[in-house]
Specification:
Elements: E1 2-3, E2 8-16, H1 25-28, H2 35-38, E3 41-48, E4 52-59, E5 66-69, E6 76-77, E7 82-87, E8 92-96, E9 103-105, H3 107-114, E10 128-130
Antiparallel strand pairs: 1-7, 2-3, 2-6, 3-4, 4-8, 5-7, 9-10
């Protein structure tokens, strides 16, 4: 199951056909294939106040027959609300934010990303904070980005 990293309104959900290659770290880092662009994907666009338009991409993988959404276009979501699940197995999700998104990523995530290492993130764990003073954030209510 995967969950909303931010509150917002679902703008659209679009399926993208593709392969079902493995998304394990060895496959992701190989030059053989780019699983994030070649695998079956489903993209949910979310309008997140103070952040802008965010793309939440569910990426299919070996033995993952389908990506199921439990939300609908136009629906308002709370942070942490279930978005959907992978049928028959697990896979990976990719979050795309605008360049100007007011997020300060946690140091472990940044360090691992620079080394092309996967970071295990569980539901409710923080991956970053909304930067105080930026649009959509105030100093008294910094929000966790995951």
């Amino acid at each position: 199951r995967f969950h909303a990293p931010l509150a917002g309104r679902v703008v659209s959900i679009t399926d993208v056909a593709g392969a079902l290659l493995s998304v394990n770290p060895i496959a992701v880092n190989s030059s053989y294939a780019d699983v994030f662009t070649e695998n079956k994907r489903s993209v949910l666009l979310l309008d997140a106040p103070g952040v802008g338009r965010v793309a939440f991409v569910a990426v299919g993988a070996t033995l993952v027959g389908s990506i199921r959404w439990t939300v609908q276009e136009g629906q308002l979501l709370a942070k942490g609300e279930e978005l959907g699940y992978f049928a028959f197995g697990g896979s990976t999700c990719v979050l795309l934010l605008p360049d100007a998104a007011p997020v300060a990523w946690d140091e472990d995530l940044r360090a691992n990303s620079h080394k092309s290492l996967e970071t295990l993130v569980k539901v409710g764990e923080q991956i970053g904070l909304c930067r105080a003073g930026d649009q959509g954030c105030d100093e008294d209510s910094q929000e966790s980005a995951a």
